[in-house]
Design goal:
The chain is mainly α. 76% of the residues lie in helices and 0% in strands.
Length: 131
């Protein structure tokens, strides 16, 4: 069949096979999981900071997130650092969904527009609340 790629499952490790044969899926799972954890920790830190606790543990959670980023940078098996991971993921997403002609382009744009709208709304609410 056209468009179906045969996957060679012979490799020294599962990560090596995924990187070689299914790089986009490998990156999507790594970025989604790690970025979700980091965003969650930053959100907790921001909530604690904005609530104005007398003993401020937000610095501890912020330093935990930064420590996780540093640890992740040193333990990436196939990329130089986390920015390289994100850049490669953005390139592959652009190539696969936006640059490719047909339905994936419109689905990507349709999925991205509500994200922009919610981000804009959140920024306006935060600015109105803080200032």
């Amino acid at each position: 069949q056209r468009g179906i790629k045969k996957v060679n499952c012979v490799a020294e490790s599962a990560g090596g096979m995924m990187f070689r044969e299914l790089e986009f899926e490998y990156l999507a799972s790594r970025v989604g999981f790690f970025q979700g954890i980091v965003n969650w920790i930053f959100a907790i830190s921001g909530t604690i900071f904005l609530e104005g606790w007398t003993i401020d543990p937000s610095y501890g959670t912020l330093s935990l997130a930064l420590w996780m980023l540093a640890f992740y940078n040193w333990h990436l098996p196939f990329y130089e650092n986390y920015m390289h991971v994100m850049t490669r993921f953005a390139q592959m997403t652009w190539t696969r969904y936006v640059w490719h002609p047909g339905a994936p382009r419109f689905m990507a744009i349709a999925a991205f527009l509500p994200l922009l709208a919610s981000g804009w709304y959140t920024a306006q609410v935060c600015l109105d609340t803080w200032f």
